[in-house]
Amino acid sequence: MELPAHLEPTPDWREIRAELRRVVGDSMYDIWLAPIEVESWDGTLLLLAAPRGTQAWVSKRFGRVLERCARVVIGRPVRVAFAGLPCQPNLGRTHAPTNASDQASHVLNPRYRFEQFIIGDGNRLAHAASLAVAELPGQAYNPLFLHAPPGLGKTHLLHAIGNYLLAFGGGARVRYTTVEAFTNHFLAALGSKSVDRFKQAYRGADVLLIDDVQFLASKAKTEEEFFHTFNTLHETGRQLVLTCDRLPQQLTAVEERLRERFESGLVADIRPPDFATRVAILRKRSALDRIPLADPRVLEFIAERVTDNVRSLEGVLIRLVASHSLTRQPITLTLAANVLDCMHPASRHRQPGLTEIQASVASFYGLSLTELVSDTRAARVVWPRQVAIHLARQLTDVSLIAIGEAFGGRNHATIAHSCQRVRDRLESDAEAAQEVAILSASIIRSHAADRGT
To answer: What does the DSSP 8-state code read for residue 352?
Structure first.
C-alpha cells in the first residue's frame, strides 16, 4: 500500500511477522496473527487491520506483543493500534516496565515457552495447570506447586508462565526468583537496612514465580519473611507458583505452616517421560537447533538408552553435536553409540544375549532359528517370534532398533507393536502368561549356569 509522501515508509512488515512468529509460536501465529496487515504508519503509530470478527480480541490479547516485536525490528518505541477500534489506554505504552516485570524479563529464559514444551502422560496435568494459571493468574490454582525430580521440566513450566504473562498479561507485574536469590536479597536488605524496599519488590508483584523451595529448609529468618510474603500475595488474590523436588509433606525441615500453605492449592507432579515423549523432545530440540542428522534413528536410539530426565536427553544431544563438529563425523548410530557408551553406558551385568534368547524360544516352540526371524506370517511362528521380541526387551538393555536388526531387520514400530501384543495377551490369557514366565525363568537360569553364577 502506497502512503502519502509526508509519511515515513512502512516498516518491514515481513521482519515484524517473523519476530511475532518466533515469540508466540507457529500455531498461535497462524491462527490469529497471520491475517493482520498494515493500514498506515507515520513513524510513531503503526495502524493495523485485522478481520472484523476477531479484531477486538486480537487487539486486547496481542497488542503488547505486537508493540514489542515492532520495537525490536524498528529499533525505537512504537505505538500500535487497530483501525476502527477506539485507542486502548494500555496499548502502545512506551514507558519502561515496572521493576518487577523488568527484572523478570531479564532472568526468564526466552526458550522456555509453552510452545517448546513437549506434553506427555507424565506431565499433562502440570502443563495444563501452568497454562491455566498463565491465562487466569490468581483465579485458577493458587498456589500452584509443581513437584518433580531434577531435570523433568518444572523450571521450564515456571519460565513459560512468566514469558506468557510478559507477552499477554496486560501489564501484570511478574517476578521470578529462586529461593537462593530470595535469601541473598533478603540478607542484603537486612545488612543495608532496606527491608521495606525488599518487601515492596516481592509483595508488589501480581505473579510471583519461585524456584526450588526445598532450599528454604533450616533458614529461619528467610522462612519467616517468605511466609509473610506468601500470605500477603495469597490473601490479596495474587498468583504464586512454586517448584520443588519433593512433595510438600516431605519438606520436614520446613515449618508446618508453610507446608500447609503449599498444599492449599494444586500440587501437580511431573513423572519421567515415556519413550514416545522422549523421542518427541529430541525431535523438537533437533529441529529447533537445526541439527544435521545423517540417520533419524539416532533420536530413537538416544531415547532408548536415556530414560531418567529431559536434561540428560538434551545433554547427550549437545555432546553428539559437539562430537560431530569436532571430528567431522556424520551423526549416525555409530557416533551416537560412541557418545552414549561414554555418558550412559548400557548395563551388561548378567544379561542373556539376543541370540541366546532367540535360540531358547525357538527350541521351546519347536522352530528353527531361521524360521523365528523370517518374514513368514504363519500362526505357528508369529506368536513365538513376538514372545522372543518381548523377552529380548524384558531381559536386556538392548534398544528396540538393535532388537529389530536381530529379528530380520524389522523397524522400531514393528518391534514396539510385538511387545504390546504380548503384553495385551498376557493380561487376558493366564495360560500364555504362565508359558512366557516359565520360558523367561528358563533363559535366566540357563544364562546364569553358563556364566558359572
So the answer is: P
Given CA atoms 110, 114, 115, 118 in this order, what sign does their dihedral have?
positive
In a domain, 167, yes or no: yes
Give residue-wise pLDDT tens across range 151-175: 899 999 999 999 999 888 878 889 9
- What is residue 12's three-state secondary structure? coil
Please list, in sequence order, all residues whose beta carbon lies within 8 angstroms of the beta carbon of residue 63, skipping any fewer than 6 positions away. 80, 88, 90, 91, 92
The pTM of the whole model exceeds 0.70: no
Residue 120, domain member (yes or no) = yes
Q: Are residues 50 and 168 in the same domain?
A: no
Residue 309: count of CB within 10 angstroms of its CB: 19
H/E segment holding residue 10: none
Beta-bridge mates of residue 144? 241, 266
- Would 360 be classed as within a structural domain? yes
Residue 133 pLDDT: 93
Angstrom CA distances, 66 to 58, 70, 82, stand at 10, 6, 11
DSSP annotation of 351 reads P
Residue 90 resides in a domain: no
Whether a cis peptide bond, with omega within 30° of 0, leads into 345 is no
Rounded-to-integer distance, Cα 264 and Cα 142, Å: 8
Is 65 in the same domain as 141? Answer: no
Q: How far is CA 140 from CA 128, 162, 168, 228, 238, in A?
A: 11, 16, 16, 22, 11
Q: Are strands 239-244 and 144-147 parallel, antiparallel or unpaired?
A: parallel
Show which of 269, 290, 308 is a domain's final residue. 269
* Segments in 289-411 forming alpha helices (H): 297-305, 310-327, 333-343, 354-364, 369-373, 379-395, 400-406
What are the cell numbers at 282?
529430541
Pick from 396, 304, 400: nearest CA to 350: 396
Q: Following DSSP, what letter does each residue of 142-184 receive, concatenated?
A: SSEEEE--TTSSHHHHHHHHHHHHHHHSTT--EEEEEHHHHHH
pLDDT digits (tens, 9 = 90+) for 15-54: 888 888 887 777 677 777 888 988 888 888 888 888 876 7
Tell me which residue of 21, 268, 227, 230 sits closest to 140, measured CA to CA.
268
The amino acid at 17: R
Indicate whether 149 and 240 sit together in one domain.
yes
Residues 223, 143: Cα–Cα separation, whole Å: 17
The reply to whether 112 and 255 lie within a common domain is: yes
User: Which domain, by its residues, includes 291?
Assistant: 275-343
Both 324 and 382 in a single domain? no
